[in-house]
Amino acid sequence: MVMDKSTLEWLLQPNCPSVRYDTLVDLLERPLSDPEVVSAQRAIMTTGLVPSILDKLAAPENEEHLHRFYHNKYRGLVWQLLVLAELGATSQEQIRYLGDHLLAHSQVVADGGFSTFPASRTAGGRAGVTIPCLAGNMVWALLRLGFRDDPRLERGMAWLIDHIALRDGEAAPEQKEIFLKHDDCWGTHTCFMGAIKPLKGLAAYPKEERTPAMEQAIADYAEFFLIHHVYKRSHDLTKVARPGWQRFAFPLMYQTDVLEILDILTGLGYRDPRMAAAIELVQAKQKANGRWQAENVSLNAKLLHPLSQEEQDKFVTLRAFRVLKRWNAGGSVSA
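The chain above was modelled as a monomer; its predicted structure follows.
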């Protein structure tokens, strides 16, 4: 796979330091000590989207976004932490405060899951309204934002492993109470978003530090998507599970698409033949100018700090090239 020179130069432009950094590291395989890599990572925190989002979150009129962290879509703290993590923000005082706030008000004290509401009478999140897409997203985001050594994150990881129920149309004779309460997440067919986001969270954990239970959970979640050929109906592979997943987007929040699923699977080292149709879909969407376009942009306008169309296109193009590079076993992307 070869990227033309103009596309590479476009991704490396300094006006989007997050994309520049990931292009240098993921596509060009520059070491983290490379001066250009160091400069790009520093720029993420000083120019563009990340400092703008942090400034907005610090404004007194936006304090409600911390308290209505989930249901204030898509300006609440949950969604801002996701965007900051996607942009490659690094740990600093305000980000640590925001992460601590989310853990203190969303994580359920009893089991480590992440709730959509704070508890009204006790600390932490409200029990009974923990959902897998939120838990997976928050584990992933907090890992990316520097909370790797926080014991609360370990409890969140354990919750992901303990709440696997990957059903493909079959009922289970025995279920946890939370499964029965959230049939749309863990019903007779597990919600795709309720599976891909936990897999995303588990996959972000350093491979050399994963326990056997983590590795087994990753394998189970991955197989769930492989039997669906990433985005199809496993019992009729001629049909697409959700047509909207064929329209790529950035950021995705609780939703997903073919490109995100492939990014996670290839990042874990999967190059399974059952992924081939999804790979072909990605290849077919490349434009004549060598780039990909963010097609589903409706959510972007609801963000605390919306991205421009060009910024969205850059993130989608970066993700597509990263997926294809891994699929082709590390082939060069040099112009």
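The mean pLDDT is 93.
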